[in-house]
Each structure stands twice: as C-alpha cells, then as structure tokens.
Fold these 4 entries.
Entry 1:
Amino acid sequence: MARLPPRALTALLSLTPRVLASPQDRAMTTTATQPAPSTAAAPVPCNNSPDLCSRAYNNITHMGAHDSAFLRDASTSNSVAGNQYYNATIALSAGIRLLQAQVHLSSNNTLELCHTDCRILDAGPLEAWLARIKHWLDANPNDVVTLLLVNSDNQPASSFGTVFDRSGISTYAYTPPSSSGSNQNTITWPTLQALITANTRLITFIASLPSPTTSDYPYLLNEFNHVFETPYNTTSPSSFTCALDRGGNSTSVQTAISAGMLPLLNHFVYLELTPDIWIPAASAVDATNSPSETEVGALGRHLRDCMGEWGNNARVVFVLVDFYDRGPAVGAADRVNGVGEAVGRVREPAVASSRAVRVRGRRRFFGGGAEVVVGVLLGMGWATVVFQERVGVGYWVCLFFAVLGDYLDMEGGREA
Ligand SMILES: *[C@@H]1O[C@H](CO)[C@@H](O)[C@H](O)[C@H]1NC(C)=O
Ligand SMILES: *[C@@H]1O[C@H](CO)[C@@H](O)[C@H](O)[C@H]1NC(C)=O
Ligand SMILES: *[C@@H]1O[C@H](CO)[C@@H](O)[C@H](O)[C@H]1NC(C)=O
Ligand SMILES: *[C@@H]1O[C@H](CO)[C@@H](O)[C@H](O)[C@H]1NC(C)=O
Ligand SMILES: *[C@@H]1O[C@H](CO)[C@@H](O)[C@H](O)[C@H]1NC(C)=O
C-alpha cells in the first residue's frame, strides 16, 4: 500500500472505501479459494459481504422493505398507514436491498408515491424518491438494489421510463440480455460482481405494465412475468404460508420455480380494524421479523419452512417486511445467505429523546391497544353520522387515525 503513488492510492480509496474501512481477517483467508475480481489486495464486499460477489442474483435472498416510501415518522405525523419507521436511504444503508412502493397518478398528472390513495398518505413524486436512491447508488458502488413498484393506475412503461430518465437512476438500470422486452421470463441472472462491474446495479420490476409493453425501456420488467408471490393478505402470524398466490401462469410453486420464476415471500401482518380497513400490525413486529427458526410466525421460520417445503435447494429470492429495522429483518436474510458477518452497514439513527420521553408519559395513560379501539369507534361513529353511508367510512377512519396516531405517537421509531 505504502509504495503506491499518491494518485493510485486516491483512486483505490474512492473505489474501495468499504474494504479499507472493514476488518480484513476473514477476507484474507478466502482469497486463496476465491480470487478477488478487483485489483485490491482483499475482496470487496458485494451487498455487504465478499461471499456474495460470485453468487448469481437469483441465488441470494434480498431482504426488502414493504411499502418502503410510506413512513410512520414525523414526516407523516406518524401516520398509522405508514409501514416503515425509516426511509429508503436509511434502509439501504442498514442492509435492505429491495424497495417496494405503490405508484399512483396524482391529480396534476405526475407519478406519485401514494399509499392506497393520495389523500391517505402521499410520499411525494416518484422522481424525487428515485433521485434519492440514485444518490445512494452513486455513493455505494458495490451494491445491487432491486425496486418493485406497484403500478396502481395502470400507467404505460413510457411514463415510468421518462421519470427514471429524469431522476438519473436509469443509468444504473439492468436490462436482461437479448431481452425481447419485459415479457421474457427465463433470464440467466448474472452474479452480483457482474452487475457491479457493468455498473448495472438496479433491477426494476413493475406490477404490472399494460401490454403491449414498448421496447424503449426494456429494463422495466413486468413483475409477474419474472416473480411469483406468496399471499400478502395475512392477518394472523400463524397463517403465513409458502403457497403461490400470484405471478406467472403456473399453478404450483414447483412448476413456477422450474420455469425460472423468482419466489417472493410476503412476510407482514395486518391488523384488521374493519373488513375494509387494514393497517400494519406494528405492535407484533418484533416477533414477526424475528430471525427465530422455531417461533410460529417468525421471519426465520417462514424462510426455513418455504425452502424446505419447495425442496431442490429452492431459494427465497425476495422477502418483504414492514418496519424492517425490527428483528432486524436483515439478520434472517444473512442467515439463509450464509453471511456470518456483514460489513459496511450503518444502523438507523435514534429518534430524538425529548419527544420519546414526552410520548412515554402519554402512553402510560392510554396503554396497549386502547387508542386503536377508541379511534375506530369515534372515527366510524363520526363518519356514519356525517355521511350516513359506508362508502366514506374507510377514508375518514384512516384520516382520523392519522391525526390520532400523531397525538399518541403510537409505536414511534427506536427511541434514544
Ligand atoms: C448458490 O450458492 C451456493 C453458495 O455459494 C452454492 O453452493 C450453490 O451451488 C449455488 N446454487 C446455484 C444454483 O448456483
Ligand atoms: C432519508 O432521510 C435522510 C435524512 O433526512 C435524507 O438525507 C434522505 O434523502 C432521505 N431519503 C429518502 C429516500 O427520502
Ligand atoms: C403534483 O402534486 C403533488 C401532490 O399531489 C406534488 O407533490 C407534486 O410536487 C406536484 N408536481 C408538480 C409537477 O406540480
Ligand atoms: C402467461 O400467459 C400469458 C398469456 O399467454 C403470456 O402473455 C405471459 O407471458 C405468460 N407469463 C409467463 C410468466 O409465462
Ligand atoms: C386472502 O385471500 C385469499 C384469496 O383471495 C382468501 O381466500 C383469504 O380468505 C384471504 N385472507 C384474509 C385473511 O382475508
């Protein structure tokens, strides 16, 4: 190192910040059997581990944040419609490598990140969010990130492509080789190292693109041509399954996997307030996201059960969780990926303590789930009286919850 000319050293530092910042002992022992593809003396981690570089993209479990743009934090007045305590940038730094969100067409004709309806939770324009993720990719040149966007208002690929271009993130977009557009499902996925070397470190799935899809944006992949999902409408931790719910044309998991479809586990629980109103079950999330392989409803067990049930060394490629920082969920992915010690992760910042202390005082008064019950009764009573019909109930109860949630600061972020 010391004999490198200063300019070469600077270049090396800018290329491999993580190697130089992390302990090398384990990395040194692996160089003999797995030669590093880079010119550095020790292997550079890919997605937080040197062991993942040589693995194919579809031979890795990518931990994902469900509804990653919809926050339950100060920016949304702690909306109970929020699914995450921390934003996508913080999630990526903490090890999350799959970001899912819903995209709606807003009243001014822009693609907007909205939860169910832009009146319930509007997280801003898709373009601004993509630009922030691009910024993270700029700063983290050895990481591969996957996006999964729900096309709620059935917008064409060209609308998404325009926004991807304007945000700048399309420079990182990966297009499968000899792709006939987004409808090709049998892809021989490259290794993480190949994606990193080509600097095509962003894989994008959209659910779904209206057909016919244009070939102008072949990196926008139709999710259900490539991915199948387990059920997403779970209301009890004991009812997670490994069954195929949607995606592809197969009726069994085995045929879907042999057809090259990538499995996605939906691993989050809703609290069903009324048949129409479901909110993320935040109070149970420590158990839900636990890496435990024995507890019913735990993330570790769900992963282990599915890989066992599907057989033939099947791998869960994607997982979506709510409140990803709890568990922490990425621990369960590390275990199935065989990653003993992840490198380069940054823990979430703690929530300001003055607010947390104030909130704890209020919580003692209300206790456990009392605020939920009070909110439902008041919100429904109000909506029924004012509107005298059920149609508006869902919307008004959600709004009511947002206000109530702010006051009570239910389940705030990690407290200092
Ligand atoms: C997936 O990666 C593991 C660990 O490196 C390896 O043993 C296995 O053969 C790989 N599977 C495939 C299908 O390449
Ligand atoms: C997340 O928050 C940080 C700190 O406020 C900010 O710099 C970053 O741009 C945010 N990222 C997203 C995706 O909103
Ligand atoms: C469109 O409206 C949304 C709010 O619904 C706002 O966040 C966004 O900045 C607007 N975009 C333009 C281009 O005016
Ligand atoms: C499912 O069938 C439809 C209609 O035949 C076809 O367009 C689509 O590509 C198929 N999807 C997969 C994943 O094979
Ligand atoms: C989830 O959806 C499936 C299929 O549509 C349905 O059979 C099941 O009852 C639903 N579960 C809940 C808890 O609503």
Entry 2:
Amino acid sequence: MTREVNRGAKSPLPNGERDLEERARRLFAGPIGFLKSAPELKFLPDPDVPEIAFAGRSNVGKSSLLNALTNRKGLARTSNTPGRTQELNFFDVGEPLQLRLVDMPGYGFAEAPKDLVKRWKRLVNDYLRGRTALKRALVLVDSRHGLKEVDREMMRMLDDAAVGYHLVLTKGDKVKPSALGPLYETTALEARKHPAAHPAIFTASSETGSGIAELRTAIFEAALA
Ligand SMILES: Nc1nc2c(ncn2[C@@H]2O[C@H](COP(=O)(O)OP(=O)(O)O)[C@@H](O)[C@H]2O)c(=O)[nH]1
Ligand SMILES: [Mg+2]
C-alpha cells in the first residue's frame, strides 16, 4: 500500500513491478504520435487497442501531463486559453501500436454557453459508456484546489459508466510538501465513496517530473498487464 502513497519517496519495488516500470518506461520512450481528433462519436478510431482516457478541469495541467508522460514537448498543446478544445484527441503509443491515450475535452470553464456544456456531456458520456477499449481513466485534480463539484460530477459519470479511474493530483510542485499529505488524505477519503474510483491516487508534477514514472507504470498496467 505504501507504494501507492506516491509522495516521491523511493520504496523498493518487488521484481515484477520493477519490470513493469521498465517496460512502461521503454514504451513511453518509443514512438508516440497524434492520431486524430474526434468531435463526434462517428469519428472515433476503431477500438482495436486498449485506451486510457485523461479528464480534468480546463487548466488542470492535462496537456502538460501528457507531454511529461511521453517526454515530448509539443505532443499535446498546452495553453492558457481554457475550454477551447471540444474534441477527444487520440494518441498512438508504440510501434507496433500498444495503446492509445485519449485527451478528453476539459470541463468546468467559466462562462461556457449551456449548449456547449450539453454537447460536452453528451460526447463524453457516450464515449465512456460505449467504449469497450477504454480500460481506465485518469481524473486530474489541481493540488492547489482539491476536488471541486465539477470533478465530483465527472467522477459520478465514470461511476455510472463503470469505468475505473485514478485521481491524479497535478502541479504538485505548486503546493508546500506539508500541504500535500493532508490533501492526499482528504482526496483519498473521498475517492473511497466512489464505486469506480481506484484507491490508489497519484501525485505528479509535470514541471519537476515527480510521480511521472509511477503514472506511466499505472497506465501500462491498466492497459496491458
Ligand atoms: N508549476 C506547474 N505548472 C504546471 C504544471 N502542469 C501544468 N502547468 C501549467 O498550468 C497551465 C495549464 O496547463 P495545461 O497543460 O495547458 O492544462 P490543460 O488545460 O489541462 O491542458 C500552463 O500554464 C502550464 O504551464 C505543473 O506540474 N507544475
Ligand atoms: Mg489542454
């Protein structure tokens, strides 16, 4: 269990898990490329490999995390213009293809027109409910803010669609180490109330790279192990 309380401490891993971590590292160091954007379900790629989806409020650090995980600067666009992308973005990982990362449109941006929110909900809900290739989701939560009502709504959507997910506390470098522990505890406590939430939650920083290797391993494990 202590391994799951990922606060940057190095705990010795059993051999099998070190092997997983190394395989994950190698996969993410290899070929990765943008496949396509799907503004509607009919544009989804064939569900021929496992998918891992990323969700989170706009500006939570989703694009930065995708770039950090894949060790590439410009793979996912990082921007300060929240709520502009309204598509599911697919990234192919591995050659031959092993898995897909799916960047879901951000939510919770202020002043979103009602019909845009409706469209977002329909697209995301339909994807979550109908996608057998979807193996797990990561719900990103800004360490400075903790869980917000919009995040809980996302968690309920995943619960209802029976898609297992991990919470990931992002921008860990932005909060004091002394604040990260209590934040971890309250977030984990709340995760326990959600049937599809995995008890292991992660902390990460795309800035310092802390927690990134552990996340890669979790993604690898969820998709391929
Ligand atoms: N300090 C710090 N800033 C981050 C981190 N991740 C993202 N950011 C910043 O937060 C802002 C939003 O990031 P972005 O990845 O575009 O968020 P997205 O809207 O969720 O895709 C940008 O200014 C990033 O540089 C992090 O781990 N640490
Ligand atoms: Mg983004």
Entry 3:
Amino acid sequence: MGNSFLISPSLFCSFLLLSSVSVDGVNSSSPFADLYHSSRALLEEVGQLVGRHRDRFTLETMRAQNKGYAAEIAVITYNRLNKLMNGDSKFRILLSFGQHGRELITSELALHLLSVLSGELGMPDLNTVSMDNVLDNVVIKIVPMENQNGRKRVEDGDACERRNGRGVDLNRNWSVDWGKKEKDYDPYEENPGIAPFSEPEAQIMRNITKLFDPHIWVTVHSGMEALFMPYDHRNGTPDGYTSKTMKSVLADLNHKHFRDRCVVGSGGGTVGYFAHGTTTDYMYDVAKVPVAFTFEIYGNSSAPATDCFRMFNPADSATFKKVISEWCTAFLTLFETAPSHLKADLGKWVSIRGNVVDGGESRAGRRKVLDGIELGMQELKTYFRLFILSSVLLMFMFCSRISRSKLIHTGSSNLS
Ligand SMILES: *[C@@H]1O[C@H](CO)[C@@H](O)[C@H](O)[C@H]1NC(C)=O
Ligand SMILES: *[C@@H]1O[C@H](CO)[C@@H](O)[C@H](O)[C@H]1NC(C)=O
Ligand SMILES: *[C@@H]1O[C@H](CO)[C@@H](O)[C@H](O)[C@H]1NC(C)=O
Ligand SMILES: [Zn+2]
C-alpha cells in the first residue's frame, strides 16, 4: 500500500514528462502526437474503408515516374447506385487533399469525409433524407494525399516541407502562367520545377481530370481560412459564365458555416501575392472545369514561422475536431448547392470532353464514340484521298487513250 502511494506521484510525473516530450516532438521529429495519422496509417485506413463499402467506393492507385523519381496517388471514387444510374448523367466532383506535405490536417479531413460518405460516421445537423438524394446524384473522386513523397519528408522531421519528394512545388507546376516569379519568389517554398508538368504528381492529376472531366474541382490546403476561386496568377476573378455562380456558392458557404470569417474571392486578389502555375488556374482556364476552388481550412498566424506544424495544423484536440467537422459539413453543403446553382449555367458549358450536363447522357455517350472512331476516321480519310487520286489518274490515263484513239480513228484535231 505504502509503496503504491510512493510510486503513484512519480508515475504521474513521468506521465507529465512523457506528454511534454510528445508535445515537443510535435515541433520536430514526430508531429503527429495523438491527433494525426501517419501517411501510411491514413492510407491503410482509407483502403479498409473502401473494402468495407464496395457498393459505393472504388480505389485506384495511379503511378508515374520521370528521371528516376516515382510517385503514386490513391484515388477513391464514390458512386452510389452506380449500377442503376449512368455516372455520366451525375455531377462529377474532384477533390484533392494534401498537395503540400506540411498541411497534415487536409488529409485528415479527407479521411473524415470518406467515413461520412461511407455511412459509418454520422453528421450532426444533417437532414439524412435530403442528403441521400444529393449524394445519389453525384460522383465524387477524392485524392486524400496528393503529395505522398513530400508528406514522408515531413514525417521524417522536415515539418516545413511543402514541396514534393524532389523539391518541386506541385501547386506551381501547372501550365497557366507557369514559371513567372514574383519579387518575393522563394525557391525553397515555390520551386515550380524545370517545366510545366515535369512532376509525376501533376501529370497524374492532369490525367485524372481529363478522364473524369469534373464539373467541380476543389484543392484543399491550410495556412489560413479562405475560400478561393480563380485567379491565383493575377488580381481578379474570371469573366466566364460561371464566375457569378462560384462567387455565390462561396459566399453561401462562408455565411452558413464560417460566420463570414473566411477570406473569399480570387486567390491573387486577396492572399497578398500572385501564384503562378497553380492547379486551380489550370483547372479553370485549360481543363475548363466550370467551378474551380481552393479551400484553405486552417491557419494559426500567431504560431512562430519556425513552427510549421502549428502554423498549418491544429495542435489540440478541440480545434482539430472543430476544423474537421465544420469543413466536412461545408463540403456536404457544397455537394448540394453547387450542382443546383450550376445547372442554369451548364447549357453554355463545353468541357474538354465536349459534353454538357443537361441531356449529358446521350451527348457524352455519342462524344465518347466519336473520340473512339476519330483515329479510324483520320486513316479512312487518308485512304479515301488516295483512292480519289488514283481514280482521277486512272480516268485521266483512260481518257487520254480514248482521245488518242479517237484522234487516230477520226483524224479530227478539234480536241486539242
Ligand atoms: C514542374 O516540374 C518539372 C520538374 O522539375 C519541371 O520540368 C517543370 O517545368 C515544372 N512545371 C511547372 C509548370 O512548374
Ligand atoms: C496519362 O494517360 C495517358 C493516356 O491514357 C497514358 O499514356 C499515360 O501513361 C498517363 N500518365 C499518367 C502519369 O498517368
Ligand atoms: C496558435 O499558436 C500560438 C503560438 O504557438 C499558440 O499559443 C496557440 O495556442 C495556437 N492556437 C491554436 C488554436 O492552436
Ligand atoms: Zn498549401
């Protein structure tokens, strides 16, 4: 008895000591403490979740490499009732998390969102029946961790790393206005790479976009609280027909979920610097995704600049849970409001795949068939030209023989 009384306080102290060590560890070697998954654990959990809900999820792993640098990206597709409904007639939503290594909280949000979509986690304040209707009408592709290699560097102790596994900023490696450097350009932070799409991660993301042809794109970051639309590379929003829709969707989200505290507008116009070669500008300008957003879900501006873990990620459980739950609900609202806002616009939309959402099924179908036979058509055209040419030659030879024989027979010269 007496012994245990003596031991308990020291156990208590060593517990304190341990916990203070782990809090220190958050700054340097192990930023995860109890709140965060390691990248491996997170992706494993995502895989298991998909395995438990094959009726609505599929998982693909895309790989690419260049010059000895390899990357892979896991993509989860959420498509409920996929046997009953053609995916092409649903709204397609592409979400990417974890493009920057140090923004750990974003991948945690992805995992949480997937758990909610699986039905394993409920959401408070949610009308389940109407949400079910919303979710029946969307196909959502989720990239929970776009930058796995950069993320590993963070886990190995470089808490400030935002670039990929060979030091290229994946949000500066896209082709819109690529490579332009501002006066405050910092190669440690923003290295765009040697050329647009030099990075396997950017190539994979571009491929996913081409194949999926989304109506809505969101890349999720942290560092501040913001709801951005294009453009990042200049001060101003686009004039396109969906510009108003994007503005009103963002204003709604900000009001409904964030008490208007997020910065809203063009990234370049509000964030205080221009960013060149960003994914969202590419999605909007080149991939013609009608609604393209960058969400910044958390930032702590009072954390010292050396403490990247705290600048970009909640460090206590209450803040962590609040951020995850607020943004998860905001995404569910987005899935509901953006398609209905967009419906009116989409008559004017010609996507990279050339289909339109209204009556999209038949047009998309036809378009795909067209794509498929386009190459064949090219060849046919070439053969047809050769055929015409040789026919003309034959005719010419034939006619000239007739005329010569006529000449010989009639002796007439009026044909010359
Ligand atoms: C992307 O990075 C690659 C590899 O460094 C580089 O060659 C390419 O120029 C970069 N492209 C952009 C748009 O940053
Ligand atoms: C992208 O798609 C093309 C054509 O489908 C394929 O050849 C290429 O390997 C893909 N690249 C990546 C990085 O997935
Ligand atoms: C923000 O950072 C400061 C300084 O590290 C810290 O005292 C504060 O608790 C942090 N805020 C949150 C919400 O984590
Ligand atoms: Zn970021």
Entry 4:
Amino acid sequence: METVSALRVNSLYKVYGNRADKAMEILRNSAGRDEKLAGLPVTAAVVDANFEVRRGEIFVVMGLSGSGKSTLIRMLNGLLPPTHGTVEVDGVDITTLKPAALRKLRREKISMVFQHFALQPHRSVLDNASYALEVAGMPRAERRERALQALRMVGLDHCADKLPQELSGGMRQRVGLARALAAGTDIMLMDEAFSALDPLIRREVQDQLLELQAELGKTIVFITHDLNEAMRLGDRIAVMRAGRIVQIGTAEEILTDPSNDYVAQFVADVDRTRILTASAVMERPLGVVDVNSGPRVAARVLRETQTSAVYITGRDKRYLGTVTADDATRAVRDGLTNLQEIVSTGYARKVDDTTPVADIFAPCAESPAPVAVVDAAGRLAGVIPRVTLLSALGSISADASEHTATPEPADTTPTGSDTAPVPVQVVAEPSGRLTGEPA
Ligand SMILES: Nc1ncnc2c1ncn2[C@@H]1O[C@H](COP(=O)(O)OP(=O)(O)OP(=O)(O)O)[C@@H](O)[C@H]1O
Ligand SMILES: [Mg+2]
C-alpha cells in the first residue's frame, strides 16, 4: 500500500566507539545534555533523530562538518547499522534486514550519489552510468539502453563513449547523477553531491536536478553544508547540530522562525529576498467585491476603504482584476448591474503567491494599486502595497538574530484557502502612491 512517507526515522541513534551502550543510556536519560558523555571513548554522531520524508519531496539535511549528516544518511539505506531506533522504507523497518535483503533494497529502492562521483576511470561514461545495473545482473543491451536514457536526461548522451577524465567536474557529477537515475529507484540519497563543484557549475547542476525532479518526482534526501544550496533545493530542510536535528521546516519557516539562536546564526547570511515569497509579505486586501454584486457595492466599498481600487473575484473566489472609483461611478451612471464589463487587469499587477520577494519589486513599482497575489488555484490570496514591501525589506535586512524577519502578515490570521479575504486591514493606502516610512 502507498504510504505518504517514503522514509521514516524513529528515535534513531548512532554512537561510534566501545561504550556505546553506556553512552546510549546516558543520552536517553539526559534530556539533551551531552556533557556527561565526556570521558567515554565514544562519539554520539546521531542522537534521537525523528522525521519522515514524504514521497516526491527533496528533503535537505544541513549542518556543519561533523554534525552527523553522513552518518545519518548511511543509516537510511542500511550502509550503517544504527545503535538504536528504526528506519522505515516504504513502511518496512530496514534495520532488521539481512545483508542480502539490504543489497536488494539498495538496488531496487534507494540509490546514492556521492560527493566524488566514484567514477571508474577506465570505463566509458556509458559503462559508468550503467554500472549499478551491471552489478544487478541486467543484460547488456538493456542496461546500455537504460543508461543512455539517463545520460540523455542529464544532457550527456553525446559523451557516452568518453572516459571520465575527458569531462569537466560538472559533467562528471552529472554522470554520477545519471548512474543513480539509471538505477530507476524511487528514492535517491545525495551526500554532498555537488560540494566539489565551483559555484557557477554548481548552480547549473542544481537547476538540472530541480528540472529533473519536476519531471520525475523522486524522493530525494540531499545533504549539504551550504545553506544557499539547501534553501534552493529543499522542499523541507532539517538542520543538524552536534548529532541532533534542531529544526525541520521549509526554507521560509527556518528563515522567519528559527527555532533557536544556532539556527538563526546559521541563516543570517542568506539572501532573504530570494527565499521569502509573496505569501510571506502579503496583506489582506482592503476591499474585495464579488463580480456579480454590482457597481453600487463597489463604489460603497471604495468609499469605506478609501482605496483607489477594489479587487474583484468571480466564481470560486477566482481573482478577476480591479475596479477603480472612476470605473464604478461610470458604471452606476450607465446602469450596469454587474462588474463584468469594467473589470480591469491593468491597474493592479498580479503575482503568484510563490514569487520570491526579489521578483516583486518591478511589478510593485509599475502597479498603481497594491499588487494582487493569487494562489495556485487562481484565487486572490492577498495584496502587497509598496509600503509593505519596503517595510518587509527593512525587517528582512535587520539583524537576523532577532528572529523577527517577517512583518506580521497572513500567518497570524491565516486565510482559509476557500474563504474570501475580508477587508480588515486598517492602514489605508489612498492612491497606491508610496505613502511613507517603512516601519
Ligand atoms: N567510522 C567512524 N568512527 C568513529 N567516529 C566517526 C566515524 N564516522 C564519523 N565519525 C564521527 O562522527 C561525527 C559525525 O560524522 P559525519 O561524517 O556523520 O559528519 P558530517 O556531518 O557528514 O560531516 P562532513 O560535513 O564533514 O561530511 C564526527 O564527529 C565524526 O568524527
Ligand atoms: Mg559527511
């Protein structure tokens, strides 16, 4: 049966060294304080990890060198036996599997991409890409076909007959990726897979991974100590510190609500305008009017809210555009009974709720009225007045350790996805002109 989570980890520990049992006892009874381990010849590399990885997500594990990332990922495919705890793959606890069953698991369900690609120098690119299939005993013609297909996915089919040393670092990394793709497993573990690449090439392979992922929908556990990489790739990110997972959340959650000072310091250098999205800075629209309610209603709401335009929604709360005071007055004069004919999409620019803040400046500058933010279903989710964007920026660049990177917006009073935003906002923005001081 399909379960939501592809991987699930329950109170997982890995203690290296001789007195692991003693160390475990101390760890389990000491509520997070590890000093008492001093004196024991052990390293607690992973301590009480609990999380699940959802099918189809990129789950990033991030942490400084030595924080336990590789140890953790190696327990996920049974390369390392845990000291304590369970690892479930598709609902099956793999910690009890025999070696042969573990090999089968790694062949059929979980492949791994390493930092140094582990390519064999005397084999062609194609033979490297098909290596796992060869080990699995797949007939030559079939495995070459599969490997070629995987090389095509990463844009390297034209290099199939080359040797690894004839390729650049980025290309070699893509061969490593192709090898994992050729294996055709649903789960991929990637341990610092891109860390050896220089920054520009690294971005390229990151993009490629995201493109492939959009198409293939694998379940990926991606390890990195690079925060920007984590933020770019991760649907969710787990932050590790000294063996413990100290926070799990989306990039945005980790930026805006770091669970402690350690995480806050870790994220202090990120370009937040690339991570924070429209939905994090949007506000409730002052006036929302149903397209069927007629110009008199629109005119009244415009008066009450003292705004230059009201936002018009149609069936299923879908966003249609705006109506200005002039339009409404004219419509009343002309005796129109609904707003259909006078809705304009030109007066307020529109962005998706997932648009990074960095990409909202231009629409905001061009838009006489606050920018409309729509969700995936096309519903009006909120608006972004210029002042809000500026004040959000102010707090974004403020000292990150204050943990107050977000302005107040929607997260204090979440907008139910199928309820219309209601006009509750008190700060009017009369003409859509820039009205003043960023908070
Ligand atoms: N085989 C081992 N025997 C003993 N200690 C080990 C072993 N492997 C790792 N360790 C220790 O466990 C801790 C976690 O190591 P791990 O390799 O998991 O960290 P990491 O987060 O992957 O670091 P890096 O970013 O440098 O790869 C470190 O203190 C390390 O020295
Ligand atoms: Mg490591």
